[in-house]
Every structure is written in C-alpha cells, then in structure tokens.
Amino acid sequence: MAATATRRRLTEVERAARVEALTAELAAAVQALTDSAGWRSMLEVSARFRRYSSGRSGLFEVRECWG
C-alpha cells in the first residue's frame, strides 16, 4: 500500500507570506498586460483555450509566463 503524504498546516506568518507572494505575482502579470506585447500574448493564450472561461484562460497565461 502506498503511503500518503500529509500536508502540514501553514502558520499565520507562512500563510501571510504566501498570500503576499501570490499577490505580487498576480500584480506583475496584470502589469505585463498593460503593454501591447503582454496583451498580444494573453490573446494568443486565450485563443488556444476557447472552451474555458476568461478567468481560467488568465490562469493559464499566468502559469505560462511564470512557470
């Protein structure tokens, strides 16, 4: 039988740091859309995911840019 890994709960400080990092990442992704190259990139990614909502396509865009 395979062992399952349990995830430990984050402390308040760890959770706050994680939220801050994700907020900064999101802000950088939104900022990238303010120039024409960023907007074009977002449209190209969105075109590949026609069956997804705009929010989900935006998530894919962020993952592609940062991942």
Layout of helices and strands, plus pairs?
Elements: H1 12-32, H2 36-48, H3 54-66
Quick overview of this protein structure:
With 67 residues, the chain is mainly α. The protein contains three helices and no strands.
Assign a percent range to the helix content: over 70%
* Radius of gyration computed on alpha carbons: 16 Å
Structural class: mainly alpha
Q: Please summarize the sheet with the most strands.
A: none
The number of strands is 0
Dominant shape: flat
Q: Percent of residues in beta strands?
A: under 5%
Order of helices and strands: HHH
Number of helices: 3
- Between the first and last Cα atoms, what is the distance in angstroms? 33 Å
What do the pLDDT scores average to?
Answer: 77
Low-pLDDT runs: none
